[in-house]
Specification:
alpha/beta; TIM Barrel; eight-stranded parallel beta sheet; four-stranded antiparallel beta sheet; 13 helices; disordered N terminus
Length: 413
């Protein structure tokens, strides 16, 4: 189903950062958002009892300036192109899963900050993200990698310290699990490491709280009673607000939520998973679990390491060379990727834009993570918000990259 984000009269308008609008048109240059009921936006299966509180959102920029001139946001196209309708881009917002937390429909991934993007350019990218209306940033305590673990959080903390409302305007998500040292209890999800890891992240980020604290991986050796007790303490202390998971199986989500329910604790609010046109395995069990428990899905690697970004064309132009696992996947999927790039050319849009627009149309998806190395790559990612894929295009994508039904029907019926 293509997502329709325009023309619903019952929608509620909110000024970006200014609270509910009072029914007037806004001057161009400001953002307005329209928050729509979840059920009106997806063909998601909603279990008996429904999915509490999940909203999806849209935004539009008023095309009329104070002087009455029509304006467009620089660098974005509006109008009709092939079977994908493009329009002037303004940031779109949704609630994170069943919570009331409003986040942008694109999440800025920061894994490249430090290893591939130096601090001044990382700061410029984060400033550009705010200019685009992106308020949702994702990081992890291990980013920076190797001897530089924690570097990415430090870069973000230095950016927050510049002031200008940078911290206040940002929903910051970070993660713990990976080993931060070689000594015991410097990784995983013991209560001791959770306590130490959050304090270390707070110092590096130069903030007094983390908006979304995510478990980077399941810890099969630590009981949920211990994990939730530690998270409850951090919540009571005001050090974290929401808890999320990453790379969990569907049954891990169910296990976590039932344990949280027994403690009268909110539990998980989001799941960050590998999800894109080339990798749709989570449709069997993770997506249904997220829908049932009201978790927002945050897909990582939306372009599958660049393979969905027009890799074959770039290969022919001599601007990209794949290596390692990417090269192996490219050879295994070359025929599918060629059909995909042919479709992109047919509808008149960049392959990477189509890959992101497809994710934005998926049930329960809150925000794909885009991890730019440069501001130009960020601007390109924002273009995807202008695309609305029609049903014919969505069907063609399913033919090229077949998905999965919910288990057990996917394999047993």
């Amino acid at each position: 189903m293509a997502v329709s984000r325009l023309g619903l009269a019952a929608s509620r308008r909110i000024r970006h950062g200014l609270g509910p609008a009072v029914g007037k048109e806004e001057v161009a240059g400001q953002l307005a958002v329209r928050v729509l009921p979840f059920a009106m936006l997806t063909n998601a299966f909603v279990p008996t009892g429904g999915m509490p509180g999940r909203l999806a959102a849209t935004a539009d920029r008023n095309p009329v300036t104070a002087a009455g001139d029509r304006t467009r946001r620089p660098g974005v196209h509006a109008g009709q192109r092939g079977r994908c309708r493009a329009r002037v881009v303004a940031m779109e917002y949704t609630h994170l899963g069943r919570t009331g937390l409003t986040v942008s429909r694109l999440c800025l991934g920061t894994m490249n900050f430090g290893p591939h993007t130096d601090e001044p350019n990382a700061h410029a990218i984060m400033d550009a993200a705010h200019e685009h209306g992106i308020n949702f940033f994702d990081t992890a305590n291990v980013y920076g990698w190797g001897a530089n673990k924690g570097l990415t959080e430090t870069i973000i903390g230095n950016w927050f310290a510049k002031g200008g409302g940078r911290r206040e305007k940002t929903v910051i998500a970070t993660k713990l699990y990976g080993d931060m040292g070689e000594w015991p209890n410097e990784g995983r999800l013991s209560a001791l490491n959770i306590r130490r890891a959050v304090d270390a992240s707070l110092r590096r980020l130069q903030t007094d709280h983390i908006d979304l604290y995510q478990m980077h991986h399941i810890d099969r050796a630590t009981p949920w009673e211990e994990i939730w007790q530690a998270m409850e303490v951090l919540t009571a202390q005001g050090k974290i607000i929401y808890v999320g998971s990453s790379n969990f199986a569907g049954w891990h989500i169910a296990q976590a939520q039932e344990a949280a329910r027994a403690r009268n604790f909110l539990g998980l609010t989001s799941e960050q998973s590998l999800y894109n046109l080339l990798e749709r395995s989570i449709e069997r069990e993770v997506v249904p679990a997220a829908q049932h428990y009201g978790l927002g899905l945050i897909p990582w690697s939306p372009l599958h390491g660049g393979l969905l970004g027009g890799v074959l064309r770039k290969e022919r132009e001599g601007v990209r060379r794949t290596m390692g696992r990417s090269a192996e996947t490219l050879e295994a999927k070359r025929e599918q990727l060629q059909a995909y790039e042919d479709l992109a050319a047919e509808v008149g849009h960049e392959p990477g834009d189509i890959a992101l627009a497809w994710l934005l149309s998926r049930p329960a998806v809150t925000a794909p993570i885009v991890g730019p190395r440069t501001a130009e790559q960020l601007h390109a990612a924002v273009r995807a918000l202008s695309l609305h894929l029609d049903q014919k295009t969505l069907d063609r994508l399913d033919e090229i990259f077949p998905g999965h039904r919910t288990a057990p029907e996917d394999y047993a019926w």
